[in-house]
Amino acid sequence: EVQLQASGGGVAQAGGSLRLSCVVSGISFDAYGIGWFREAPGKKREEISCTSSIDDSTRFKDPVKGRFNVSVDYDKNTNYLEMNDLKPEDTAVYYCAADCDIHPIDYWGQGTLVTVSS
What we know:
By secondary structure, the chain is mostly beta strands. The protein contains no helices and eleven strands. Strands 2, 4, 5, 6, 9, 10 and 11 form a seven-stranded mixed β-sheet that branches.
């Protein structure tokens, strides 16, 4: 069974930080691009990051570029999304998924809710 379990969501004030975790099982962690997506109220789901399965680098989409970062723990098969300088517009359900290198996405995890208050 393939699982991508996202956790770490919660409530933060604008300008604050949160760290989300995506624990991957059932697939070879380092053979898949692990991406983070979010779905804000009234908006379509959008990709915000993708960690390459080829060189392990992460690309970020413009709305989060410079504010969010990713770290990876290969021993724990976990991709961490570090969110800084949070803004109210970051409020969304956040999902991790695979394979962001190759679309369409094959596997979706459960979401974790992030709420940013002003």
